Fold:
Amino acid sequence: MRIYKTKTFRRFQRKESMADAALCEAVKRAEEGSVDAKLGRNLIKQRVAREGAGRRSGFRTIIAYRVGMRAVFIYGFAKSKEDNITAADEQDLANAGALLLGLDADGIETLIVEGELWEVECDEEE
Structure:
């Protein structure tokens, strides 16, 4: 399973001081079948804990997700600032997610080189 984050998500992650380990944990839960919300069109919503607090009071992330293949964090928000995403936003995210999940290895590498995508490194032993 390869895990990535978009440039936009990375900015959100840095602003909120969210560790990559929290992203790895969210994908691990999804791989184990524990998904907070299936939005359809290969999008899922996963809660990510705020450091020092639980997932409930933390962040919501939208992930383009294909089981056993690839997860791309494309959007994040704090539950305290935004209740949910709009239908229009969900459609835009689904379109972006479809493009990202459809890329081959060369396409992924191109986006990484261009600074539009980053791979998340997870400690496989956890």
Q: What stands out?
A: The first strand starts at residue 2 and ends at 6. The beta strands are 2-6, 37-40, 43-48, 59-66, 70-78, 117-119.
